[in-house]
Amino acid sequence: MWHFISEHISQATATCFLCQHTQQVTGGDSHLTYVVRDNHARYFVKLRRHRGPLQLHHEALGLEALSEGHTVATPRVICHGVTQEGNSSREYLVLSYLRFIAPESAHWALLGKQLAALHQLPQEPHFGWPEDNYIGLTPQCNDRYATWSVFFSECRLGAMLEKLARQGIRWVNPDVFVTQVEHFLHSHQPAYSLVHGDLWSGNIGVTPKGPVLYDPAVHIADRETDLAMSELFGRLPPAFYQAYAQHAPLPHDYEARKPLYQLYHLLNHALLFKGHYLEQAKSAIIACQKRC
Q: Does the record bear Transcription in its keywords (predicted)?
């Protein structure tokens, strides 16, 4: 396996790489992560058993989409593919190796400025993405719509409620709730923004060169969804929000929509992890019903 991946790295970089050392490191609950190196270079590698769709393929496409705008920094995608090992196959993603440092206030301010720039890049007038991808381990519906209220109510909350219902978890009538949300958001017509899609502290790092984003779930959406997610599991430091607001002020009624945007991620956590997230998601739905 490592010989195959080494050859792919060599082809992608036009430099001979022969994996001499592999070190497993912490990096996620859905895949194995390694640092691989020879005497001249090192890389970060993600591995997962290849079952069904190519999840790491979509992660690579997301990282490339973010980096193309030259606003936020991401790990550089070296190569990705599938390698056969006996009777099983593994999907892999090779990224540039990054050395992380402790973040300071200036780093968070820079990230706020960079994210504002990302959100303001011009986009085609469609919410969604050319193909479905993943939010964590969950397939993410990206059917394209010109209207935000329809896209979010159907492809985000509606799709997630249907997944939960198939597991026997049903707190509301999905059709009724989707209609309520669509009506609530109908007058809100945000700009088409490229978003990270899963923006929380665990997907942000800082290197000596500055902040870096990884593990995206990219699509075109209301930029507020990135900010809402960043507040869900503990807000980022104040410097981030201050810098973002300086370069791209949020509408005065953002707070009214924030619980709905956070609900998508709570439903996903309830789907994936169950436990206390089930009660948290149920309470959030009840609160959103009252708001809508």
A: no
